[in-house]
Amino acid sequence: MTAATQQTGVWLDAFTRQKAAEAWIMELRQAAFARFAELGFPTTHDEEWRFTNVAPIARAEFAVRPAVGRAVGLSTSNLEEARDILGKHASHQENAFVALNAAFLDNVTFIRIPRGAVMEQPIEITFDAGEANGHAHHPRTLIVVGADAHCTIVEKYTGSGSYFTNAVTEIVAGDGAVVDHYKVQLEDESAFHVATLKTTLGRSANFSTHNISLGGALVRNDIGATLSEGTEAIINGLYVVNGTQHVDNHTTIDHAKPHGTSHELYKGILDGKATAVFNGRIMVRKDAQKTDSKQTNKNLVLSDEAVINTKPELQIFADDVRCTHGATIGQLDAESLFYLQSRGIGKEQARNLLTYAFAKDIVDRIKVQSLRDSLERVLFEKFHEYSH
Amino acid sequence: MALLEIKGLHAKVGEREILKGIDLTVDRGEVHAIMGPNGSGKSTLAQVLAGRELYQVTGGRVTYDGKELLEMAPEERAQAGIFLAFQYPVEIPGVSNMYFLKAALNTIRKSQGLEELDAMDFLNLIREKMTLMKMDQTLLNRPVNTGFSGGEKKRNEIFQMAVLEPRLAILDETDSGLDIDALKLVAHGVNSMRSNDRGMVVVTHYQRLLNEIVPDYVHVLAEGKIVKSGGKELALELEAGGYAALGIYDEAETVGKP
Questions:
Q1: Which residue, among A232, A251, A260, has the nearest Cα to A313 in the 3D structure?
Q2: Residue A260 to residue B10: CA distance in whole angstroms
């Protein structure tokens, strides 16, 4: 028996016992499960998964639970309208995790913002796994933003115990749409979290995403953005790992048309025996002249045993473009530490303050104040800031 | 008991010996200027006194207020009232000037058994000192020294000194890179802090700062040793004859000369 069939067997029972749904959803589930059975979970022999070993997920036998997305700010739309969109941007063909998610498609959080609508309040979607030891859930979100509409979306993932979150989010933004997206991952530190975000952005759309990864034992984010003509995209992220946590961020920015701009900044803080991966792929297609793309990955490594693998992957097929990339891996600056100490601040506090400052650079870019405030608090506590 | 007593201080960085036996006594109410050409060890002395680990002390003894200074961590020295105004103030993105200064002041106050200042009292104190240094209030909310001009950084150092009210202030080339207006402003800030219970060590390459901050004593440092000490007139002598008049080679003086 091959590994793939063995893995399929584990999920098959839950798959067949699923509640029936509309025919088109059943079809999608069937096709996705068949694809999952073909692919099996990736191994470290796959280039895309070289540094992330998902064997602990592949070996485990999770009980599947429906994912419940609590959306605040807007009611969800009728899924029937999503029939031609769902799964078109995050395809089950490409990836075993997306396939598994689609195989258990249920309770899709589907939000549709009409053309020209300006949503003043952020739309918050929370996937709380609750007491979820031994369970798996497959959160699925689809957000369709009409042309020239404005909205802010906050996705939050929480839970407690050792469980598996396998999330897929698709965002489709129309021409001239303005979309700010935030994903905050605060899973239990013994949980597995695999998430795929695929966005397709219209002409002159303006998109930003901030991917904040703080929890989880094993975390993988696959983020893809396809830009059109004159699209502006900001793809930022922050990961903070300690102990034996592992986080892997794979991003793909696809400049498909001319005059697109993408700015990407990922920052990571690693302590203990934690490991992290940053893989930033930027594609500039033949047509995409005048592309302006900048990628930066900065890492602060606080212990001798933490490991970061960072890799830019530029595939440029146009000749009149500006693409820059850079990665840094460093420790706390000795001069800054001394400066703080010379003003009476103790060494430990000075270290915490500088670590916090490194992360704050990303947090400060968050436009939703309540989210910024709550993250500042979480980070403050994480770095044992003394109270005022 | 003198405020600061340095005896036979030796220090090195890597394998290179920089301080080769410094003796210096600074008492309360006194301002000592330390002059010398580039590379003479002036800045090293300032940093060693503040506790920079980069430099390894290989000999000698330093007492501050009767305590063994060299055994104290940098933050303990600051808490005991030592302040170093940096030659190159460090930029710290992500930490606001206000937060930084409040953390510093309250840590120092706490270590001295004083109550921490609340937000209101702190703000009042800050406003008073900002007026003294003619500093723009917006600098408070900006990250420490980040994006500051050279002059703003130096002013920020003296502003911090005014807030923290040290008992021994060490000014490391606070005049370098300042135009005459900024220099006068900085000197005004320093002069307003001269008092009978505070000692100052002013490290400088040029005499012009000492026109504004008139020292009680001047020491000339060359190749890691104090080679001459005197009153304020020694600075004027140096101004007239250069370091060469004392038989000291100064790279800066030979540059551009035939």
A1: A251
A2: 60
Could you give the CA distance from residue A337 to residue A376 in angstroms, rounded to a whole number?
Answer: 21
Q: How much is the pLDDT for B117?
A: 94
From CA B211, how far away is CA B184, in angstroms rounded?
10
* B78 interaction partners in chain A (CB closer than 8 Å): 341-344
Query: According to the model, what pLDDT value does residue B207 have?
Result: 87
Rounded to whole angstroms, how far apart are CA atoms A187 and A127? 10
State whether residue B74 is helix, strand or coil. helix
B119 contact partners, CB below 8 Å, separation of at least 6: none
B66 touches chain A (CB under 8 A): no
Q: What does the alpha-carbon distance between residue A10 and residue A3 come to, in Å, rounded to a whole number?
A: 11
Q: Which of B53, B89, B93 sits opposite A361 (nearest CB)?
A: B93
CA atoms within 13 A on the CB side of B231: 1
User: Of A338, A340, A342, A380, which to mutate for an interface test with B (greatest number of B Cβ within 10 Å)?
Assistant: A342
| Whether B93 and A357 lie within 8 Å, measured CB to CB | yes
The span from the first CA to the last CA of chain A, in angstroms, equals 61
Best A335, A338, A363 member to test B by mutation, with max B CBs in 10 Å, is A338
> Whole-model pTM above 0.80?
yes
Q: What pLDDT score was predicted for residue B258?
A: 44
Counted residue by residue, chain A has a size of 388
Residues in B closer than 8 angstroms to A333, CB to CB, are 90
**ipTM computed for the complex:** 0.95
A339 shares contact with chain B (CB less than 8 Å): yes
Q: Would you say the C-alpha torsion B160, B162, B163, B166 has a positive or negative sign? A: positive
DSSP 3-state of A354: helix
- One pLDDT digit (tens) per residue for chain A, 388 residues: 567 777 788 899 999 999 999 999 999 999 999 999 999 999 999 999 999 999 999 999 999 998 888 887 676 678 888 999 999 999 999 999 999 999 999 989 999 999 999 999 999 999 999 999 999 999 999 999 999 999 999 999 999 999 999 999 999 999 999 999 999 999 999 999 999 999 999 999 999 999 999 999 999 999 999 999 999 999 999 999 999 999 999 999 999 999 999 999 999 999 999 999 999 999 999 999 999 999 999 999 999 999 999 999 999 999 999 999 999 999 999 999 999 999 999 999 999 999 999 999 999 999 999 999 999 999 988 887 433 3
Q: How many residues would you count in chain B?
A: 258
B25 at A interface, C-beta within 8 A: no
Q: How far is A365 from chain B, CA to nearest CA, in Å?
A: 12
Put simply, the chain A residues between 112 and 131 with a CB less than 8 A from any chain B CB are none
Within an 8 Å CB–CB cutoff, is residue B53 touching chain A?
A: yes
**Rounded alpha-carbon distances, angstroms, from residue A70 to A2, A28, A54, B148:** 39, 24, 28, 46
* Helix or strand run (H / E) with residue A112: strand A109-113
Residues of B with Cβ-Cβ distance to A340 under 8 angstroms: 92, 100, 104
Distance of CA A359 to the CA centre of its chain: 17
Interface residue A361 vs chain B (CB under 8 A): yes
Do B100 and A360 make contact, defined as CB atoms within 8 angstroms?
no
Closest to B251 measured CA to CA, from B205, B202, B203: B205
